[in-house]
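testing teh design pipeline on a random one, pls ignore if ur not involved
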């Protein structure tokens, strides 16, 4: 590279998944890179989201597994769960993972700047009292919880603070029916908490296939989760004994904790975007093109701060592609968002890839639906009615499989494999010609023969 005009070729603001990936990738391609982070490296996914949440999902499963084992002749007693011990072990592992992120960056000679980054101009970033310059800058600061405003909101905790609870609440109210609220509700119920979930609409998981979301909601009800639909929290009061009283339009609920799971917003506060004229949307998300480039040619943004598709693997891909376009052999690698698989780690989990039935209708497509609803073999020896739903959207003319959806055990693992087929443009005939592994739930996707009435 020619002599540098700036301190660095690239500065990344934010040390989460997208930021770390872009910094590492650019450094591996020969760029001089710095990354600034005000907290631990790892971001939402490692520290306050995917990883600790999945650990809690795993932990909450064991009591249910013991119950299932009795159907197979095991005599196992469930005694108790030590929440504090579990939390300490989880936190130790998160610290280890955060340390690995730092080591990976250092191994690529990426300079670690401790503190929050903000703009002075389009080539200058302030980190504390230090000013550093760079030819290019990537914003990867992620998002943060958003809470509605009502009286007594100070008595609630957000989805980040949930992971800091020193004691499992015996009774809990969760406000919000998105994937965060649904996941928290399910895992806390499996840990034996009494769970109430308040949602503004009639059903959970807006944006997912509505049939699958409704199916999951019924499964959650059957586990004893209490739904309060078409409701909003009007007030939360602190009682003398430390409990809380949640007041909605039609009722009051006494609880030990109120968890707000009402969504997240881009964390642009303090970036001083106006100093360089970076355009944002009404939501606060940074506006970018298909190359993750802002309206300022040398400044890019990746991950949740752009509010495109807020998934960790998406942020990783966006960050890698920006680095590759800037310093790699190509400069025209645009990000695409079709057929990206995702999962809600509820119990049972819901996973999806491709179009929902509603999206296919909105696009005016001529399509068929294939589906299968069944009781998995694992549960046939007992009395519990645990069931699974699998659904396929097929375009009639081309026979191309447009979408796959599943509610049931192992759905995330199953959908991940089939996502490759959708990305490759597989048709229904390709699925029909594929031999299933028997006996598995996954084989249902290759044995659906007759479309159902829509």
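output:
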């Amino acid at each position: 590279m020619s002599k540098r005009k700036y301190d660095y070729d690239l500065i990344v603001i934010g040390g989460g998944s997208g930021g770390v990936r872009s910094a590492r990738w650019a450094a591996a391609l020969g760029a001089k890179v710095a990354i600034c982070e005000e907290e631990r490296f790892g971001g939402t996914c490692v520290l306050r989201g995917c990883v600790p949440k999945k650990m809690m999902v795993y932990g909450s499963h064991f009591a249910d597994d013991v119950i299932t084992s009795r159907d197979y002749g095991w005599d196992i007693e469930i005694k108790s769960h030590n929440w504090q011990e579990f939390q300490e072990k989880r936190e130790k592992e998160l610290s280890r993972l955060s340390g690995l992120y730092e080591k990976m960056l250092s191994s690529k000679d990426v300079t670690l700047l401790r503190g929050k980054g903000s703009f002075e101009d389009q080539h200058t970033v302030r980190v504390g009292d230090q000013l550093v310059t760079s030819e290019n800058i990537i914003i990867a600061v992620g998002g943060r919880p958003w809470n509605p405003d009502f009286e007594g909101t100070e008595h609630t905790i957000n989805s980040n603070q949930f992971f800091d609870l020193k004691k499992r609440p015996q009774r809990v109210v969760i406000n919000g029916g998105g994937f965060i609220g649904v996941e928290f509700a399910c895992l806390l119920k499996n840990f034996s908490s009494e769970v109430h979930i308040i949602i503004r609409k009639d059903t959970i998981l807006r944006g997912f296939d509505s049939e699958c979301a409704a199916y999951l909601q019924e499964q959650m009800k059957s586990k004893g989760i209490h739904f309060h639909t078409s409701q909003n929290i009007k007030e939360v009061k602190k009682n003398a004994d430390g409990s809380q009283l949640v007041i909605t339009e039609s009722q009051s609920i006494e609880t030990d904790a109120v968890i707000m799971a009402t969504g997240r917003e881009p964390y642009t506060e303090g970036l001083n975007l106006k100093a360089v004229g970076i355009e944002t949307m009404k939501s606060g998300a940074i506006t970018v093109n298909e190359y993750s480039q802002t309206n300022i040619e040398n400044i890019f943004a990746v991950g949740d701060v752009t509010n495109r598709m807020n998934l960790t693997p998406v942020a990783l891909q966006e960050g890698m592609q920006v680095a590759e376009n800037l310093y790699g052999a190509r400069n025209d690698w645009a990000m695409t968002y079709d057929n990206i698989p995702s999962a809600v780690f509820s119990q049972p989990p819901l996973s999806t890839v491709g179009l929902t039935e509603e999206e296919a209708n909105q696009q005016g497509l001529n399509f068929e639906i294939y589906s299968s609803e069944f009781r998995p073999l694992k549960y046939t020896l007992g009395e519990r009615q645990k069931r699974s739903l699998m659904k396929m959207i097929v375009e009639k003319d081309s026979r191309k499989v447009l979408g796959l959806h599943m509610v049931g055990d192992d759905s995330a693992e199953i959908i991940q494999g089939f996502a490759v087929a959708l990305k490759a443009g597989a048709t229904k005939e390709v699925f029909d010609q594929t031999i299933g592994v028997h006996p598995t739930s996954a084989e249902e996707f290759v044995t659906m023969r007759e479309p159902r009435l829509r």
